[in-house]
Structure formats: structure tokens, C-alpha cells
């Protein structure tokens, strides 16, 4: 099987379109490709440009299309527009970034456009290099299909509404959900198993960031993406003694229902699992109906939180049970598939990236990892 092909993250295409628009303002002509300094990694990428055009004097538009490589990414081929216009001297910054149609609004950051740190740094660095001294511009990034695509993501669970975010910490889009990537994950796990008998499994960048801030050593961290089942089996085969599962509750909840590949294209059932655990805990029927019909697992959590100020303890009761069930189902999965035993603990965080639920083993393992030497 050939190695999975990597692509580029959305910020890279937004940046390429913005550069093409700016260059058009300086010298009206068509561009077939635009070089972008990725910053991370420190290399250049040549990004295809579909179209460039003037909109009116002092304003230009360029269009490119997303190419995430061999990845199950719903933004594949989606158009990215960048409108660049001259700003007057009253604008103090050389470059001002704005989110247009299809760019999400981040409710966690005062309704700002959902440009994250890497996207902002990428755009500002590249555009400032293109500007002539004294010139100022305003840049509006537009994702015409962003609002519709966002309905198929968990963005709203993390506080991003009305569109997609320019997310990522790197310009390279690694094919985390392509089947060939599993082999790379396995190889990394095998390498790290030579250094330690205990690892922290993080589904994505949020989990890795939380683990690092908690002081977990880098050699104990491994990103699994959605391949939790196969990675648990490999961990068992490598003789690991313990695994800490650290993830967003809307993903890890699937393990409590016996779903060990967590990509939403393959299986879901989050609200059903949460409703079943809540029912077993004794949650009243009207509240069960609210959770069952909630649009996201995060919405279900927020409903439980709305009940607790009245004197109940539903969040702790239900999610502690869920974390314990995740442990049990994961340990059982390893036992069934490779007839080996591993101690597994779970730590769950919410859309604000705050840990709010742990199993007993998960709490102990997280403390132990945090106290290790780097």
C-alpha cells in the first residue's frame, strides 16, 4: 500500500488566496500558483490558484480550493476566497484580518472570527512580506460552503458557530484518518513502548495540548486520531501496563457504547449512550428526552449542568459512571482481541478544554504522568 499523501491545512489555502489578491492589487494579472511560507514546518508550499479578479478599484479577489491530502476531510475541494482591499492611514496595523461568510464565530473569544493562532501568524507573516512600506490592507476570508459544512462537524460543541474555523498548528495536513496512517501510528507506538510501559492516548491536538500543560512527558504522549481500537490492541501486544485515554467527551463517550473507531462517518450514537447512562442513574424522564433529542453531546452536558445548581449532582454521577464504563469496555476490548490485560483510565474534557470527569484509574494515572521527569 502506498504511503498516504499529506496535504495542507485550510489556513494555507486562505493565505495563498490572500497573497494572490494582494499581488493583483499591485500588478493585475492571473496567477496559477502562489508560494506560501508555511512557518511550521519551515518550508515553502506552492498552492494552485483558481481565479483572480478585480472587484472594484482598490479591491481584488482570489480563489483557491482545499486539498487536505489522503484524509477523510469534509473540506476537500471546498473553495476559499480572499478579498484584499487597501486601507487608509487611520488603520494602525499593516494587515487587518476579517472573517467573511462561512468563517465561524468563536463564542469562547467574544464572538471573534475563528482564526486560530497559526492561521493568524501565517497570514500576517506572509502578507507583511508582500506589502510595500507604508501600505495597509484589510483581508476578508470567505468560505462560501463553510456554513453548510459546519453543520456536519462538532464545531458548535467547541463554541464555534455559523461556519468553519481556520484551525491547525501546522501547514501540513497529515492524513490521520486515511487507512495507511494507522501503520504510522502503530510504528510510533512501538517506538515509544521501548521507552515506557505507560502511554497517554490523545485523539487530537486539544488532548495533546492539555496533556502537555499538565506536565505529561512528550515520550509518553501519542496521538491516535480515531483509531482507538487498533491502537489499544497494539498497546497490549507491546506489553504496555497502562493507558490513559484523554479526550473530548463527545468522542470518548462512544467507547462507553462499544464503538472503538470514533470517526462520525462510521458510527455515532453519542446521545443514545448518554441517555442510557443517565437513565440508569435515575435522571427523570423529561430530562432524558431533552438529552436524547439534543443536537450534540455537548448540549446534553450543558443541560445536565443546568440542573445541578438546584441541588443535584447529575454531571458527576453520570460522567463518572461513563468514565468507569469507558475503562471497562476498553480493557475488555484489549482482552477479547489479544487475550492480554492492560490497566486503562479515562479523562474527559469539555468544549472549553476543561477536564470535568475522570475514572478512578484515570485520575491516578494523570497524577502519575504529571509527576514524571521530563
| Computed structural class | alpha/beta
Please state the overall shape, judged from the principal axes of the Cα atoms: globular
What is the first-to-last residue Cα distance? Answer: 37 Å
The helix/strand series, from N terminus to C terminus, equals: EHEEEEEEEEHEHEEHEHEHEHHHHHEEH
Unreliable residue stretches = none
Beta-sheet strand percentage? 15-25%
Tell me about the largest β-sheet: 5 strands, mixed
Say how many strands there are.
Answer: 17
Catalytic activity: Co-precorrin-5B + S-adenosyl-L-methionine = Co-precorrin-6A + S-adenosyl-L-homocysteine
Pathway: Cofactor biosynthesis; adenosylcobalamin biosynthesis; cob(II)yrinate a,c-diamide from sirohydrochlorin (anaerobic route): step 6/10
Protein name: Cobalt-precorrin-5B C(1)-methyltransferase
Organism: Acaryochloris thomasi RCC1774
Provide a descriptive summary of the structure in words:
- Helices cover 39% and strands 21% of the residues.
- The protein is of the alpha/beta class.
- The longest helix has 25 residues, at 314-338.
- It is globular, with a radius of gyration of 23 Å.
- The chain starts with 6 loop residues before the first strand and ends with a helix.
- The model has no long low-confidence stretch (mean pLDDT 89).
